[in-house]
Amino acid sequence: MKLKDWLKTNRSFFNDSDLRFLIKNVFNLNYSEVLGSDVYIDLQNLQYLDEIKELCINGLPLAYIFGKEEFFGLEFRVDRNTLIPRPETELIAERAIEIIRKNNLKSVLDLGCGSGNIAISVKKEVSSDVAVFASDVSFYATEVTRDNAESNQVDISIVNADLLEGFKINSFDLIISNPPYVESDHIKGSLLFEPKVALDGGIDGLDVISKILEEAHHYIKDKGYLIIEVGYQHKQAADKLIESKACFYKLEEWIKDYSDIFRGFILSVIGDR
Ligand SMILES: C[S@@+](CC[C@H](N)C(=O)[O-])C[C@H]1O[C@@H](n2cnc3c(N)ncnc32)[C@H](O)[C@@H]1O
């Protein structure tokens, strides 16, 4: 069977980005190369694709099947202890990099690092004297981050901690976080394969975000920044939370995702701490 015919047959089952991922990881080819060519699938690969499809029918995400995901042009090992990095988080990391460069920031914490995708991408892009820390409450996630830092050849400090426990006051110029923010009763379908601790933000999805806002200003230096990713429906509630902490933070900007939806905010620290 020709690979392009297999793609046609399975286009209703896999979305475009899954098909691209499959072609790259099974055949080491680009999607566009395949469409215009007569590459054949041998029996072994056909069976392999069927097995993958079977796992996907049961909801298992491709990234867990292959144990990897791309983020910011880098490859990250992922397993069931880590969230699969999402494209919208790239936009949050991108803004962090711009802020670090523009303000010549020197110490950065990625709080809730998961596979280490944010910390490692940031470290790759900023000047070598920026100290990047990555922390997570999950020991297993910090171990995956350690592996990814090594495979991507970056030197970052990795800490297993519950939120900011154990860090020194006034340690960071910037804290960036993609915290768990899914409403507890929205964790269903393929999300059930990802770690609950990485997703569960409580009844309204804002439990961990509120805790970060409560504590982060103690750990960020004067005129430092806090960047947090939120769910697509959280802008209004997050604005209220930010307003309630107006003595500590100034809202600098809301970040929109590729669909023009508000998915993260940037605060600067102003308060007396
Ligand atoms: C949404 S995932 C983000 C992972 C990764 N930064 C990314 O963008 O793909 C949230 C991460 O926060 C971690 N986490 C949850 N509660 C935490 C806490 N109290 N302290 C530190 N990390 C926490 C989870 O283990 C998980 O790795």
Describe this structure in words.
With 273 residues, the chain is an alpha/beta fold. The protein folds into 2 domains: 56 residues; 187 residues, Rossmann fold (3-Layer(aba) Sandwich). The chain contains 11 helices and 9 strands. The strands form 2 sheets. The chain has a 7-stranded mixed sheet with strand order 5-4-3-6-7-9-8, sandwiched between helices. The chain has a two-stranded antiparallel sheet with strand order 1-2. α8 links the parallel β4 and β5. It is elongated and about 65 Å long. The structure holds S-adenosylmethionine. The site of S-adenosylmethionine has 21 residues, from α7, β4 and α9.
Write the layout of secondary structure elements.
Layout: H1 3-10, H2 16-27, H3 31-35, H4 43-57, H5 62-66, E1 68-71, E2 74-77, H6 87-103, E3 107-111, H7 117-125, E4 131-136, H8 139-151, E5 157-160, E6 172-177, H9 196-199, H10 207-219, E7 220-229, H11 235-244, E8 249-256, E9 262-269
Parallel strand pairs: 3-4, 3-6, 4-5, 6-7
Antiparallel strand pairs: 1-2, 7-9, 8-9
Helix pairs in contact: 6-7
The structure holds S-adenosylmethionine.
